[in-house]
Amino acid sequence: MIEVYLVRHGQASFAEQDYDKLSAKGMEQARILGSHWQILDHHNTIENLQYYAGSLLRHKQTADCFFEGLLKQSDSSNQMSESIIIHAGFNELDHVDVLSCYNNKWQSFQAMSNSVKQSHNQNSNDPMLAFEHEFHQAIQRWVSGDFDEYKESWMQFKHRCITSLQEVINTAESKKLMIFTSGGVIGMILGYILKLNDEEMLKISQQLVNSSITKVTVINDEFKLNYFNNYSHLEMLDQEWLSYF
Questions:
Q1: Is the separation of the CB atoms in 31 and 39 below 8 Å?
Q2: What is residue 117's predicted lDDT score, i.e. its pLDDT?
Q3: Could you give the residue ranges of the DSSP H alpha helices within the chain?
């Protein structure tokens, strides 16, 4: 049996120019997860885990902060960070590409956020609801398959997520894997395991809390979901630690 722990990255820098970095809150979310994991580790899984991360900055930062919380020692955490295997197959969908194909003025989350805020000031709508609506429309356009200008199609993204997971399972030297990745990737993997349709996959992705863990096991090439979106390490402190971007 192979155990796979899928960790969603901590809160990113949504309203800033560079989304692909953790906010201060996101870093602390990952440290909290590491501390919580250390308390729960009754079976020495820390030593036996093989660690992977997507190649995005927020993936690696989440792993680094996780190790800081886990080990409480800078030297040890640095050594653990160096052991991470970087695998671009676990990168999130290209949000900038999806947004800019939907609206060529939206070249970043910040550009979209500013646009929505201006619309909010003019039309007195809730800016967050307006953002969620527009982002959902952009994703739906991509998922439809009716447009071919995207760098990576919806079908290509789904295929990448599943084949990357299968690849690391087939080549890993350990029976316990931890993968630092993003909500879209986790949603695609769960959609594959649970045989969900595209709309259901998207809903799962949107429910994932930053720094949450989802556990999957593989027995005789059959995938099973053990638990989904576990963020008890944050709930034990305060609901204000919860975030979704």
A1: no
A2: 62
A3: 24-40, 45-48, 57-71, 74-82, 95-102, 109-123, 127-144, 154-171, 183-194, 198-207, 232-235
Ordered DSSP codes for 18-37: --SSB-HHHHHHHHHHHHHH
Question: Bridge partners of 3?
Answer: 176, 217
| The pLDDT value given to residue 43 | 54
78: DSSP letter:
H
Query: What residue spans define the domains of the chain?
Result: 2-92+152-241, 95-144
DSSP-derived secondary structure letter, 104: T
CATH superfamily of 2-92+152-241: Phosphoglycerate mutase-like (3.40.50.1240)
Q: Tens digits of per-residue pLDDT, 170-183?
A: 999 889 999 999 99
Taking only the tens place, the pLDDT of each residue in 73-105 is 555 666 777 789 999 999 999 988 998 899 887
What mean pLDDT do residues 10-34 have?
A: 87
d(C-alpha 1, C-alpha 123), whole Å: 55
Structure tokens at 97: 């590409």
**Taking the CA atoms of the chain, what radius of gyration do you get in angstroms?**
18
5 CB contacts (<8 Å, ≥6 apart)?
49, 176, 177, 178, 179, 213, 214, 215
Whole-prediction pTM value? 0.90
